[in-house]
Description:
The chain has eight helices and eleven strands. Helix content is 33%, strand content 24%. It is an alpha+beta fold. It has a domain at 30-120 and 272-281: Apc35880, domain 1 (Alpha-Beta Plaits). It has helices at 49-59, 91-102, 129-138, 146-167, 197-212, 242-252, 256-259, 275-281; strands at residues 30-38, 69-75, 82-88, 110-120, 176-184, 186-187, 190-191, 218-224, 233-239, 262-264, 268-272. A hairpin with an 8-residue loop joins β8 and β9 (233-239). α1 (49-59) runs antiparallel to α2 (91-102).
Amino acid sequence: MNAPGSGRPATGRPSQPLPEPSTIPTNGWHCGHYFYRFCRERIESKLSQTLCDQLNDALHPADEHRPQRLTSYWTSGHRADFCVMVMDPDPSKVDGVHQSIMAPALGAYVEPTWSFVSMSEVSEYVPTIERFRDRLIAGGADPSSPEVEAKVSAYERRLPMMNEQRLRPDIPDWPAACFYPMNKSRVVGANWFSEPFSRRNSMMAEHAQSGIAFAGKVSQVITVGVGLDDWEWLVTLWARNPEYLREIVYKMRFDEASAKYAEFGPFYVGYKSTAEQILQHCRLI
Length: 285
């Protein structure tokens, strides 16, 4: 949009030089969650070895095509047979896995049922060092005590590693996973985005505290779909046992951030598998 009669953008010149145009984020990675069903009505008996090899190559690509993170699952329920989670700085590598699955000839026997496009991020609610100290003091800790200094120092050491896990997460070698999209409510009386930051920050601190109880049992990454997909976030949970998925989701729904402000989309549960294991589970080999 130009300023009237000026011939130049109304916003004027940028105060800092702009980065070169690129598909690679300056922070975080692209992320894709893809869900599929096999078109059994088109399969006479079993998948041919050629088609099995194509799925195997798609889910276990050669090094030059392999994204930074790629994991696959067979999924429970009728909505999908299997799913793939992919992460990489390059969106073409992320979507390339999907295109390899849908390419001829395998694509004639596979139907995509749902997907979510997002990016990893460090949430604005992750406490800074100063904010972490303030929370301790607000909780009744003596600001001059050695205990406060020790906790703040420990948090300062952990924070870079925690943020790295948010941006470029390692996927644990655990058997169960859960995926679901969510929004924050905008309805009258429960509009998350009209609440002041301090209030939202306090509610998210309570929410995070509930999750800490599952350390070592559940790991998560939340990727943002704002401007990229229909929902605002996609939650991925990995668990040592599927019962922990049920327990953590149930517990965290009582936190005010969820109970009053969260809107949830469809839930999918999957079990980590290779291409061969997916085909075996689906009775296609």
